[in-house]
């Protein structure tokens, strides 16, 4: 399953550029695209309205009905708005509804949190949190690459609120998530990053490492995880450090 994301953003372009691969995958499993109907789809896509219409393989498309034709016509590429934010959230919500009924993997194309919030959803923080709430489960984000795994401890949180969010983390759920994640090589140490410059310099540049992060590291070690830190964040993303770490745990969401 794939959501369109913001129909005025880069999501539709990513979808088009992925069509060759999606057509190959659809020969062995179904691909279902949830979208606004703003763009025409290739003839291989079959329009459906319910989960029962989806077969074991093929390309399928489902249009959500949150926007009128007049509203769809008013959308402009590169100009996201409250309407495009409303559309993005509608596609995501519908995909989750289908996933709950029939299972399957979910790929979410980019949306603008600003525009989802502007559309009348002030509590929206992002895909990760929305999915966690929909499934009523504790969820952690993992950004996974060939030689780099990054698990941010907080997501989409204003920097000033990070310490209170860190204090609220369910450490048992965090440890269980790391232990059960097949993408993390537990034979290597986990690099646990600090919040303050130089990981606080022993409490001289902020107390968060001493008061919050070091107890977290100790807990994870007691659960059998090889954890190093808190480490100065700017020292960990070099090539050698990356290769020697099973996973990097920053305290804030980062893009690398």
TrEMBL record:
InterPro entries noted in UniProt: PdxA_fam
This protein's record includes keyword Lipid biosynthesis: no
Single annotated GO MF: oxidoreductase activity
UniProt keyword list: Metal-binding, NAD, Oxidoreductase
PANTHER family with a match to the protein in the record: 4-HYDROXYTHREONINE-4-PHOSPHATE DEHYDROGENASE, D-THREONATE 4-PHOSPHATE DEHYDROGENASE
Name of the protein described by the UniProt record: Putative 4-hydroxythreonine-4-phosphate dehydrogenase PdxA
Species of the source: Leptospira santarosai str. CBC1416
């Amino acid at each position: 399953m794939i959501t369109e994301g913001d129909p005025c953003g880069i999501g539709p372009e990513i979808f088009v550029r992925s069509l060759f691969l999606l057509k190959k995958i659809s020969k062995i499993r179904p691909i279902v695209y949830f979208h606004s109907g703003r763009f025409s789809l290739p003839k291989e896509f079959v329009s459906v309205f319910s989960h029962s219409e989806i077969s074991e393989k093929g390309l399928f498309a489902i249009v959500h009905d949150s926007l009128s034709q007049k509203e769809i016509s008013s959308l402009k590429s590169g100009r996201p708005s409250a309407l495009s934010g409303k559309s993005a959230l509608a596609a995501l919500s519908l995909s989750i509804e289908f996933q709950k009924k029939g299972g399957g993997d979910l790929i979410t194309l980019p949306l603008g949190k600003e525009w989802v919030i502007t559309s009348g959803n002030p509590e929206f923080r992002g895909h990760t949190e929305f999915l966690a709430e929909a499934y009523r489960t504790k969820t952690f984000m993992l950004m996974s690459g060939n030689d780099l795994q990054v698990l941010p401890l907080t997501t989409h949180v204003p920097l000033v609120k990070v310490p209170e969010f860190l204090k609220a983390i369910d450490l048992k759920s965090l440890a269980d998530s790391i232990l059960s994640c097949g993408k993390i090589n537990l034979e290597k140490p986990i690099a646990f990053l600090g919040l303050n410059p130089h990981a606080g310099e022993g409490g001289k540049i902020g107390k968060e490492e001493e008061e919050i992060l070091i107890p977290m590291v100790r807990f994870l070690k007691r659960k059998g995880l090889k954890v190093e830190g808190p480490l100065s964040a700017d020292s960990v993303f070099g090539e050698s450090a990356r290769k020697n770490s099973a996973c990097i745990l920053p305290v804030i969401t980062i893009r690398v």
